[in-house]
Design a protein that fits this description.
The chain is built from 3 helices and 4 strands; from the N terminus they run ββααββα. Bound molecules: zinc ion (2 copies). The site of one zinc ion has 8 residues, from helix 2.
């Protein structure tokens, strides 16, 4: 009879990873850093833990995603508060989208034959 003894060589430590909850530095949301990913990180010798949730990471990866500088303005025409995707020039009256459209239509009304 042959005895098969199960033995672990010295120095082998079974590392068990457990899912960890981290906080996203971008949106502040809590996200799970899964055990599987921690193992992957350890294998690749990544020292830094993920700092962003999946959504934020995807967004950063997505090169077509651009942060538009939305500026809060008050429409000079109707007084409505809105945002514009550009930096308004100081001193110039800013119109909301609908008023801007209206004013454009009005100024374009020249030369009726
Ligand atoms: Zn996030
Ligand atoms: Zn307006």
């Amino acid at each position: 009879m042959h005895h098969n003894r199960l033995s672990y060589p010295d120095g082998v430590v079974a590392v068990t990873y457990i899912d960890r909850v981290l906080t996203c530095i971008d949106c502040g949301a809590e996200f799970v850093f899964p055990a599987g990913e921690q193992e992957f990180f350890a294998e690749k010798n990544f020292r830094n833990e993920p700092k962003r949730c999946k959504a934020c990471r995807m967004r950063r990866k997505d090169k077509t995603y651009k942060v538009r500088p939305e500026t809060k303005i008050t429409c000079a025409e109707c007084g409505k508060e809105t945002t514009v995707p550009f930096k308004p020039t100081q001193g110039k009256p800013i119109l909301c989208r609908s008023c801007f459209k209206k004013s454009k239509e009005q100024t374009g009304q020249g030369g009726t034959s």
